[in-house]
Amino acid sequence: xxxxxxxxxxxxxxRSDVQTDLLLLEEVTKTYVTDGQHVEALNGVTLxxxxxxxxxxxxxxxxxxxxxxxxxxxxxxxxxxxxLLDGLITSELNDYxxxxxxxxxxxxxxxxxxxxxxxxxxxxxxxxLLLAGKIDTRSQAQRQLELVELGEFGARMPHQLSGGQMxxxxxxxxxxxxxxxxxxxxxxxxxxxQTRNLVLALxxxxxxxxxxxxxxxxxxxxxxxxxxxxxxxRDGRIAEVVxx
Length: 244
Fold this sequence. Notes:
Blueprint lengths: L22 E12 L2 E13 L4 E5 L6 H8 L7 E6 L2 E2 L5 H11 E5 L10 H11 L5 H11 L15 H13 L5 E5 L7 H18 L2 E6 L2 H4 L4 E6 L2 E7 L1
Parallel strand pairs: 3-8, 3-9, 6-7, 7-8
Antiparallel strand pairs: 1-2, 1-4, 4-5, 9-10
Helix pairs in contact: 3-4, 3-5, 4-5, 5-6
């Protein structure tokens, strides 16, 4: 069973046996044009994330957390600077390369779960595998549900689940293709304290056991406390880095 309280890392785990710098942002700036005005969402951000490392992004709304996640997942590209994911410069990939990178290397988890309510729980988890043209998709999806302690819920529809159960299904869907990087945008924002701790413990276990790098944006200091490093953003810049 999943623990009801998260494990809090007190030191950086030894990862000398794995490749470093799975994700690397080099002097990244991102500027948007809104109503004719240039808005700088990120300014000169440099950040490296290693395999199996859990990194939390914290800061007020508008500080650049979601923008950074979008750049990390190759959903958007920097105005200047570079983003490298598993050694690939995201802005230099063509459409095919970007699609393959996202499908094979990255998993996404959102605050609002974003499950398809016309599909069963098992079908939601299976969907990324089907889109990628994989075989034996049903059994892989079932195994992933069992890893998040929801193996008996596959036939249910999303509306039949609690908020915490839906988020665990969303995590199973994000992890079913074994991504090297998991991006989580406020994954516990809609959950009560006990359920939040269950979800955080699951994410911590994924980082520790599967060596998946996790980059999580959160407003919650309690949620951030589970991470190996906390990156504090202010006005699009890294204001402080706290290692646990």
